[in-house]
Amino acid sequence: MYKQYSGPNEAVLEAQARVCTGPHQTRPLGTKATDAIQPDAILETILKSVKGELPVDQAVSEAQMGAFFAAMTIRKGFPEATQWSEAELAAFDKYGADLAKLMPPEIQFIMNPDRGYKPANPAEKIIVKVVEKILAGGHLTYDETRHMGKAILTGKAKEALTGAALIGQRMNLETYDEVRGYLDAVFEPEQVRHVAVDSLTHFGEPFDGATRYFRPTLFIAAVRAALGEASVLHGVDAMPPKNGVTEEKILQVLGARTNLSLEQAAALIEAPEVGFAYVSQREYSPGAYGIRELRVHIKKRPPWSATEKAQQLFSAPGANYMVIGYYHPGYEEPLLRLIWERGFQAGLVVKGEEGTSHYALRLGSPSTGDRQAVNYSQGFRRVGEGREDFALDLDPKAFGFNYEKNPRLAMASPEAFAEAGMAALSGGRGPIYDRLVLNTAMTDHLLGLCPDVNEAIERTKAAIDSGRALSHLKAYIEKSRG
Question: What's CA 86's distance to the chain center, in Å?
Fold first, then answer.
């Protein structure tokens, strides 16, 4: 049974979108009398919700309150331009007595950490201790972050404390130790299973899915399996608020099982006729899956929305590789550092379509200065005891893919993606076929698995045209049900 939340209240969500962000991006409420979102109206709405005067579907959830009031507390230490506006000061002065009288103890603590809070259980005790540091604008150690993350995933802490911890971490801008701590809270390094294959590549895509462009990862895994390169994919069926098309939804349409255990997934990776597997977060981290609805209520992505893509579930005795998609610049360096420090042979991060690792069929404007274009790629390869780094804009035209516009399917749905992917693996030429060729070949080339880029393209085409890739996908569907 997964946690159900009241609300969320849309007006408060809009306020959160403005104030629950970083020290230079926050937009104070009520800076103009004509602003649609005024702080006194937001506090009135929160107080009405606490008094039970709003319908359940319009109520301000505890997680919302935790996130909003945490943001207000943290902003006291922000630069002058993003600190409290005059209207916010006036609103809190006006409603201060009501807030002090009506708000529950955990919210009182979030608004004024000096007053303290008596935890109801061991999980809350861990969270409260670190929330005090977060609300003061401080950073956590690796161990503090990991313990806090694991406490949150138990689901035993009050929603307000969880919301305050997660949004506060995002507002304070996570350090590398915090990024690492969140990753290991979800799935510990000690849990990584060994698989008997020569090499293995982890693909980390955004869990919220695609709503615009075809999602090729599943079909790329089948092509790579036909080339003797094993892959593992992981994610969820649906992730709010985007709820886009995911690999799990495509597999469901194709008739495959999507509740494989790690042991069952390992067997499929090791099977020569299959060579890849998908693992749902429901199976390897039920706690993380269970609180996914929380993302709607805190408005912003929680810290582990970036780290969950870097999850390592398996390890091959020979070489291990990782490919991660991202959207927001700034995460590529910590992600590559994680991959390097965990001993991977090569790592690749791509600013691809919709934040995936997927290359668009048209480059568009190239990267300039701090602006990264879609298809920007950065990574490393281990060479002996050294490290070889690279960064580039990948232009499909340089490899014979000449598109004036980046093509899209008429509909973004699991059914449409499944049909298009199967047609491409059956040899049907067109944009989907070209996407599979470009992405498979360029990924393996940049990872160092096929140094000659032309050879990478030709061997990818051969794996598809011969029917071998389709055979691997069909074998996966059949054996996953066995």
Answer: 36
Cα 50 from Cα 158, distance rounded (Å): 15
User: Which residue in the block uniquely carries the two structure tokens 């993350």?
Assistant: 149
First-to-last CA distance in the chain?
A: 27
**Which pTM does this prediction carry?**
0.94
pLDDT at residue number 453: 97
Q: 156: which DSSP letter?
A: -
pLDDT under 50: residue ranges of the chain: 1-2
Q: Among all chains, which residue has been given the structure tokens 């879609």? A: 374
DSSP-based three-state secondary structure for 178: helix
- CATH assignment of the domain containing 400: 3.40.1030.10
Beta bridge partners of 60: none
* Continuous segment of H or E residues that includes residue 267: helix 262-270
Same domain? 169 vs 57: yes
Note the pLDDT tens digit of each residue in 271-320.
999 999 999 999 999 999 998 889 899 988 888 888 899 999 999 999 99
- Report pLDDT for 2: 46
Q: How many domains does the chain have?
A: 2
Distance CA 290, CA 153 (A): 8
Rounded CA-CA distance 249/228 in Å is 26
Q: Which segments of 335-385 are extended strands (E)?
A: 346-351, 376-383
Report the alpha-carbon distance of residue 48 to residue 185 in Å, rounded: 36
Tokens of 82: 């993003």
Asked if 37 contacts 95 with a C-beta cutoff of 8 angstroms, the reply is no
Amino acid identity at 437: V
> Does residue 181 lie within any of the structural domains?
no
**Residue 107 has what pLDDT?**
98
